[in-house]
Amino acid sequence: MNSQIRQTDSQGRLRHFLSIEGFRREQLEQILDTAESFAMLPGRQVKKVPLLRGKIITNLFFENSTRTRTTFELAAKLLSADVINFNVNVSATAKGETLLDTLRNIEAMHSDMFVVRHQASGAAHFIARHAAPGVSVINAGDGRHAHPTQAMLDMFTIRRHKGDFTPLRVAIVGDIQHSRVARSQIMALNTLGVSEVRVIAPRTLLPAEARTLGVHVYHNLEQGLEDVDVIIMLRLQKERMEHALLPSEHEYFQLYGLTTERLRRAGPDAIVMHPGPINRGVEIASEVADGPQSVILQQVSYGIAVRMAVMSMALGATAGEAPS
Amino acid sequence: MNRIHIRGGRLIDPANAIDAERDLWLEHGKVLAVGEAPADFKPDQIIDARGKIVCPGLIDLGVHLREPGQEHKGTIGSEGRAAARGGITTLVCMPDTQPVIDTPAVWELIRRRAKACGNARVLAIGALTHELAGEQLAEMGALKRAGCVAVSNTRRPMANTLVTRHALEYASTFSLPVILCSEDPHLKAGGCVHEGAVASRLGLPGIPAAAETVAVARDLALTEHTGCRSHFHTLSTGRAIEMIRQARQGGAKLTAGVAIHQLFLMDQDVADFNTACHVDPPLRTQSDRDRLRQALRDGDIQVICSNHQPHEADAKTEPFPLTAPGISGLETLLPLSLKLVEEGLLDLATAIAALTSGPARVLDLPLGRLDPGRSADICIFDPEAIWKLDPETMASQGKNTPFAGWEFRGRVTHTLFEGRLTWSIDS
């Protein structure tokens, strides 16, 4: 009923990208290196490369996300793949079809890759386990579990600004408990060998036994930001107030909002990141979001290059094959 | 065949403190004699039990029968056959059928079907509240008169503590034991695994240990207050056991039980989203598991059950949080219990007591023992037979087991229910 899913083949080549867990440092670096070769493309006259010509990529989104779906779609199109978008929430499963039936039906359309987003943790593993052999699965976010391409675009952004990962102190601020992005970031940062990963949040927004994830835990933002090189702010959802995890947005901003003054606690060259969409005045002050240390908009454009890298690697085409 | 002679087996009957080579003599569905042959006994059948263990048929407290209402998961017939294969002769079913057992009519339907199938005795735990909704008391007096042996609200939440108090008081009016599945629904908060390192890593919604301990503390206080006979069913945390132990030492009238899989599996087994390990209460930590094992050894836990919950394959073929919790456990109850003996945790008599006289005592049943005059419910197993579990060969309609491929030592060779052979490995 449950077999271990291997994300790489016997030669260590990428087959699926479901979670950062299980990858070695050099494998993650290879994704980043490949992304570098794609990062140049948007600046060129002809933006498309024919690496995945003739391949069919299906975006299988069980949960709405215009931004992520669009970047995956754009990445696939820049690789010359044909893209099918399934917004499953409003179709099959809403009529009672099981996920497996949905998968079988879509598989009959001969996709080479599924890009999956689902509200349940483990959904991407599930689909990889049941997909036909040869079909790759990319996790575009499953429940609270993982969002590995988002984490890798964050790593790409960090590497572009900081170069070497090893001396870095990185702080992740906000709702770690419910964040698939944070879990993947923590695993990626630790795999890439950063000096220290800190999480900063009130206890209601931290997972049980957070330290087992390989992080240092802070409840005080000022202390947690001391001398860090990278600050990753997470998005806060209003329902956290309704579920009695926080008293108010006001208090959250008072205690955990990133302001210019607090940013001074961090290292002088610290960069500020956010997976978006940002809540100004809740997680982050506008002057920080738009300030010189913010790399938030760069993250978005790097996201396309990283997704192109992952897609091309999983389908066995590498950037080295792209025409110069 | 009215007369059966079970010859040469090692009889283990914990209720009668027997552990010796003794013959058994059965007549008209009852035990006629133990040891010496009765005068003029001419058996219609002889069962050769040399090299085997002969013990009372097992009593599985709190199985989830799916009939009526969910026959696609299991029927009384299929699960009765599975029980016979597992050496179980009495299935005490939970009231969460569809409709729930909150009226004598529903129980009567189950009783008739069970009788027609005839592989095992089916006894009912009636509902504690109407439709298990936790708001209005069920007609417990009528349920008792109809033959229900206990009452429970299963794992469905009670509206508030006052309703729980009144339900326990009302149940005690009829001397009905209450089977408590103590759990705080608010702390559970839609969780599907133990709240700990594995939940944190996989991003699965967690159920904290406190969801159990808070509720056990409340239910202990109400048990003490009402004087009700409470059985704390399928406990999963070490802390809850500590509280129960203290309450028992203080003289409270209560018993405790554990599902056998909780003594082997841990939250780590959920890794890689193994839906076969999605159970409720969730698999806890190694320290919880070890504490539960210790409690069984010390006698603070008197009952081992299977917490049998058969499912169709589709119910487990979804992403982990969307799958149905539960294990199809009838056929692994005894083999796993024997593994505890093999591992040196328990002696054989203590293990068998937790499967026979223990549950009988909780429910005040004249079963789970083999003295003359009692129903001839008997399990015979070969303690040395080595076999591997293949879910496809299970008799239960539910093949949902995390023990597929496990190797066991000890296999049921014969099961007799009311003196009739309901399972023989040779058949």
From TrEMBL, chain A:
Pfam families, sorted: OTCace, OTCace_N
Any one annotated GO CC term: cytosol
Alphabetized GO MF terms: amino acid binding; aspartate carbamoyltransferase activity
Reaction equations catalysed: carbamoyl phosphate + L-aspartate = N-carbamoyl-L-aspartate + phosphate + H(+)
Family note: Belongs to the aspartate/ornithine carbamoyltransferase superfamily. ATCase family.
Entry function: Catalyzes the condensation of carbamoyl phosphate and aspartate to form carbamoyl aspartate and inorganic phosphate, the committed step in the de novo pyrimidine nucleotide biosynthesis pathway.
Subunit structure, interactors included: Heterododecamer (2C3:3R2) of six catalytic PyrB chains organized as two trimers (C3), and six regulatory PyrI chains organized as three dimers (R2).
Protein name per the record: Aspartate carbamoyltransferase
Organism whose genome encodes this protein: Thiolapillus brandeum
Gene field: pyrB
Automatic annotation (TrEMBL), chain B:
GO cellular component: cytoplasm
Keyword Aminoacyl-tRNA synthetase part of the UniProt annotation: no
Record Pfam families: Amidohydro_3 (PF07969), DHOase (PF12890)
Enzyme superclass (EC): hydrolase
UniProt keyword annotations, A-Z: Hydrolase, Pyrimidine biosynthesis, Zinc
GO molecular function, one term: allantoinase activity
Domain Dihydroorotase catalytic: 51-236
GO biological process, one term: purine nucleobase catabolic process
Keyword Coiled coil listed: no
Entry's EC annotation: 3.5.2.3
Domain of life: Bacteria
Occurrences of domain Amidohydrolase (ranges): 343-421
Protein name listed in UniProt: Dihydroorotase
Gene source species: Thiolapillus brandeum
